[in-house]
């Protein structure tokens, strides 16, 4: 594997030329090619187990909670009563694990294109894939774009735990995709989409914020700290169908029991995530 040199894995993505994040690895635990992508599980020296897809870091056990908690709980606490939830992508199970911490959820459907990701994570990343074990979870193997076409007006919350806009993930950043999300949400529905890095992807961010601003009455862009994603943070694109909604203000706070289960999300962090640096704020507001 040319991403490994003298015991160090380096993430050299074509979407972030001229830079790489390197982690020292102890062992390659699993390496498999599915119909869609190349999936590898490493034992790293200091970040726990790590999954890469096509050489790009998807999760490490040490920092995954920041991403999973914010992707799930920002939209879930924005909705007054989220009963039906859809996760697109997210085959590691981490977002599911967080969503089922909300007792009002009646059913959470995950539409993941690649069953090999799910099987691999069940075997090697059980602390994330435990999300699949919950009785409210229903699994659909297929393309999220196609799934949305067949499910108008069906969900209170949609979380798009997408990969980078490359390979099978390209369709999850297109204008038509957001139109399908909008029509799959019920009245008052909320979507949270993985929305790349303010340091690397401002043109893409401007595009997708613009697509959503043309569809939803409330749209904003926040940031989550996550050391092992490119440049150390990742964006959340959050939209609500409720006119006049402010997605920086959660409709509900975690109960003490819920908060005890969370390591990153809390009420102030929800609001604070949307305080973004001026260069990014200008790009988002111009979109
Ligand atoms: N948290 C990761 C990150 O930001 O790097 C992304 C999570 S990763 C588990 C994304 C998942 O989306 C992958 O398992 C991939 O198979 C799935 N995926 C890619 N394209 C998809 C599509 N069109 N429909 C549904 N799932 C898709």
Write up this protein.
The chain is an alpha/beta fold. 29% of the residues lie in helices and 30% in strands. The protein has ten helices and 13 strands. The protein has helices at 64-78, 94-99, 115-124, 126-129, 144-149, 175-184, 202-213, 256-260, 267-272, 278-286; strands at residues 4-5, 8-11, 21-33, 38-44, 49-53, 56-60, 84-89, 107-112, 137-141, 155-161, 185-194, 218-225, 233-240. The strands form two sheets. The chain has a seven-stranded mixed sheet with strand order 9-8-7-10-11-13-12, with helices on both faces. A six-stranded antiparallel sheet has the order 1-2-3-4-5-6, with helices on one face. β7 (84-89), α2 and β8 (107-112) form a beta-alpha-beta unit. α7 crosses α10. The termini are far apart. The mean pLDDT is 96. The structure holds S-adenosylmethionine. S-adenosylmethionine (SAM) binds at residues 58, 67, 88-92, 111-114, 117, 143-145, 161-163, 168-169, 171-172, 194. Belongs to the spermidine/spermine synthase family. One of its GO terms (molecular function) is spermidine synthase activity. Residues 6-241 form the PABS domain. Keywords: Polyamine biosynthesis, Transferase. This is Spermidine synthase.
